[in-house]
Amino acid sequence: MLRNAQAAYLVRESFAGFRRRKLTTGVTILIMGSALLVLAVLTLVTLNLGGMLEQARVGIDMRVFLAEGLPDDRVAALQPQLVVIPGVAQVTYISPETALHEFRASLGDDAELLELLDQNPLPPSYHLTLRPEARNLDAVQAVAREVGVWPEVEEIVFHQEWIDALETWTFRFQMASLLVGLVVFVAAVFVISNTVKLTMAASARVIQIQKLVGATNAFIRTPYLCEGMIQGLLAGALAMGVLLVAGRLLDGQLGGIVFFTPAQVGGFVVFCMLLGLVGSWAAMRKYLTLRSEI
Amino acid sequence: MSTTSPGAREHDLNAGPLEERGIIAFRHVDLVYKDQAALKDVSFTVANGEFLCLTGPSGAGKSSVLRLIAMDAFPTRGQVIVRGMLATKMSRRRIPRLRREIGFVFQDFRLLEDRNVYENVAFAQLVVGVPSHQIVRNVMRVLTNVGLWDKRHRLPRQLSGGEQQRVAIARAMVNSPKILLADEPTGNLDPVTAQEIIDLLFRINDAGTCVVFSTHDHGIVKTFGQRVIVVQGGRIASDVKRRVPVDRNASLADRMYRPGETATREPVHA
Ligand SMILES: Nc1ncnc2c1ncn2[C@@H]1O[C@H](COP(=O)(O)OP(=O)(O)OP(=O)(O)O)[C@@H](O)[C@H]1O
Ligand SMILES: [Mg+2]
Q: What atom of ligand 1 comes closest to residue B37's alpha carbon?
């Protein structure tokens, strides 16, 4: 239960650091804001790159080549069997004629060579597109294993190296983001924690007397936690502000990038407040005992 | 064990339920700071409303006794019981509650330099959540009692040492504690001012608050020690209660300058 006078005291004390150490607090917000800006940019790049990688994965597909000379009805019977395989999104039949047509188109000027053939050498095939959750190497190999044992199937083609590379790079990028994010996180907590420590050191006598006359730890802590949170809030708002302005200015050059939604901007700022909270908590660990060192 | 001291026998510490053992009870208390032993086998009991004087040489352990009572330190061995609460079984959450029942005064006043007299006293009420209208009333009461209501707008540095100590006493008393602890409250004061502070402690004691204070000053001990515990090398060297009540109107200055006694006295100015 907070009485009015107590609440007013807490509010006043929460801003004490801002009033008494304007420069230190300003520099803290600036440093933390820069760190958070790095974090925000990194998050944005992750979001965009993630979107691009997802886009690239749409290209993960399979081609199932059938044995030559199969009767049409056996070829047609495979379609419903392929559709029900888990992970398969769409099944398209490509007849030898269509395949030859495509082949000719891909040869361009050299297409005349095909005139030497007296019959179409290309087998019939099915083109499989995959569901989003199956656009990875494991799922593709699973489908290939299942279909590969069918007697009608001659060969299955998919771009293993390409999928491999895609997965490796996605993983590496996520790890790098995580690592940089972690460093920035620790730096931000450290910077805030240092400023709050200064405030607490300056109020050592006040804290001592509070403990002596029986203030609870929760009460003693509150203004310092609030100070950290307010600093986090301002730093987060600063980072977002800079990012928004930069986004405006560069809008022309960077067409089509995904920006944070208003909800994400809000979430980021709340996250920064929590960072501030963690920072001031870390600063107070040694003050959390009830000893007043009298 | 302080078996030689009459006081220890008077209050048999191992008998009776908690509440009959007085407002403060030490039973075979040892206190060791990190590697420094400060108290050894200290036992005594303080009755409700008692006026107790702790004395002894520097480093004897007087402040440590007071610290244990305020539960700002905890016994390494033995038991400290304050208002029925056992220090070793005390949960952290209850310590603030206990502190509200204990006032503490120091040799160096420990006022907040950037707050005026009124704010210094009100602070003790504010941070424990007393409603505003009661704060005004209580601060007025205690500041009037110590004779400083008229100087409530002054900053500590605009007051004399004695006045600062009275502000500190007002702050200690504003939460209406059951116990007032004073660690060498007159240590920084001249004899006349020291006398005023002792008078004030007597008045507080008359109103029913148990007062425990420490002092180096033999004059004070001899003139006003109703019950005197001498601490020496972390042990209780003696615990003596006067049969005839001390004359609370006695003048410290009279005794201070009586010939023959000055030789055994330590200087009043610390
Ligand atoms: N925080 C501490 N850490 C380590 N040792 C301490 C601490 N406080 C006190 N001591 C030691 O404990 C012993 C008792 O100290 P205490 O302060 O209780 O003595 P005192 O009787 O109050 O002395 P004085 O008259 O000088 O104030 C001393 O030897 C002192 O050095
Ligand atoms: Mg001392």
A: 12
A151 & A173 share domain: no
Contact B99 A211 (CB under 8 A): yes
A204-217 burial, b for 16+ CB within 10 Å, e for fewer? eebbebbbbbbbbb
**Radius of gyration (Cα) for chain A, nearest Å?**
32
The residue length of chain B stands at: 270
Give the predicted TM-score (pTM) of the model. 0.73
Instruction: Please give the Cα distance from B181 to B209 (Å, whole number).
Output: 10
Q: Which residues of chain A have pLDDT under 70?
A: 1-3, 252, 254-256, 286-294
CB A139 within 8 A of CB A111: no
- In sequence order, the 6+-apart residues with CB closer than 8 A to the CB of B46 are B22, B23, B24, B25, B52, B210, B212
Answer yes or no: do A234 and A113 share one domain: no
DSSP labels for A259-276? ---HHHHHHHHHHHHHHH
Residue B170 has what pLDDT? Answer: 97
Residue B151 belongs to some domain of the structure = no
Q: Which of A124, A158, A192 is the last residue of a domain?
A: A158
Q: If you search the block for the tokens 């030789």, which residue do you land on?
A: B263
**To test the ligand 1 pocket, which listed residue (B35, B53, B64) has its Cβ within 8 A of the most ligand atoms?**
B64
3-class secondary structure for B234-251? CEEEEEEECCCCCCCCCC
Who contacts A251 (Cβ-Cβ below 8 Å, separation ≥6)? none
State the total domains in chain B.
1
Residue B35 CA: nearest ligand 1 atom is: 4
CB contact under 8 A, B126 and A4: no
Mean pLDDT of B41-64: 95
Which pair of tokens denotes residue B146? 């110590």
* Structural tokens at position B101: 């029942």
Phi, psi of A216 (to 5 degrees): -80, 160
Closest among A162, A144, A161 to A153, alpha carbons compared: A144
Domain that holds residue A131: 61-158
Q: What is the largest CA-CA distance in chain A?
A: 105
First-residue to last-residue Cα distance in chain B: 32
A213/B128 CB distance under 8 A: yes
Q: How far apart are CA B258 and CA B255, in angstroms?
A: 5
Closest CA to A25 of A188, A199, A237: A199
- Which residues partner with A130 through β-bridges? A88
Nearest chain B alpha carbon to A8: B126
Strands B24-33 and B102-106, by their bridges, are: unpaired
Task: Write out pLDDT tens, residues B182-231.
Answer: 999 999 999 889 989 999 999 999 999 999 999 998 888 888 778 999 99
Q: Is the CB of residue A93 less than 8 Å from the CB of residue A80?
A: no
| A197 within domain boundaries | yes
CA of B62 to the centre of ligand 1 (A): 8
